[in-house]
């Protein structure tokens, strides 16, 4: 139903403006390649029913939010034209904590005791969750070299995280609108640091 609505909205925009948006249909919370394969088949079937052909005006990808997805990213990439790492959920699942449970009570205690220097939900945990991201990028690109890879989440507006994502080979970051100015400057600085 959602995919059909997206394609119909695209037709409506094309009829009104003469131009159609390029769609990126993202399947969330994938742990197994076969999940994405089946979801992709559904998207392609609905697209065909609505008059769209694969590779013409839309691509299908997935949100990488689970540690298992990072481990099997090569298999998942066979069915995805893009990855978007959901770093908020990947941090939760990678640490094994609910953000709601840990952020207000445990993280401040860990910071007071010197276990953490900052919240892993505010700035990417490079050694832990970041290693999962690097692994996912490497394995995904080994299977599909041209796969577009990015992140979405609050980490996309954190300058230290943006530098890490640039070094890890991501193509883009996405963040809250109010964090865009900071993200743009940080992305430019990260690009200059490696050029």
Can you describe what's shown?
It is a single chain. The chain is of the alpha/beta class and 195 residues long. The chain contains 10 helices and 5 strands, in the order H-E-H-E-H-H-E-H-H-H-H-E-H-E-H. It has a 5-stranded parallel beta sheet with strand order 1-2-3-4-5. It has helices at residues 2-17, 33-49, 67-71, 73-77, 87-95, 99-102, 106-112, 129-143, 159-167, 180-194; strands at 23-27, 58-64, 82-86, 148-152, 172-174.
Please name the defining characteristics of this protein.
single chain, 195 residues, alpha/beta, 5-stranded parallel beta sheet, 10 helices, 52% helix
Helix content: 40-55%
Shape: globular
Q: Give the number of helices.
A: 10
CA-CA gap between termini: 45 Å
Q: Mean pLDDT, nearest integer? A: 94
Work out the strand percent: 5-15%
Multimeric organization: single chain
Order of helices and strands: HEHEHHEHHHHEHEH
Total number of beta strands: 5
Compact summary:
This protein is of the alpha/beta class and 195 residues long. Helix content is 52%, strand content 13%.
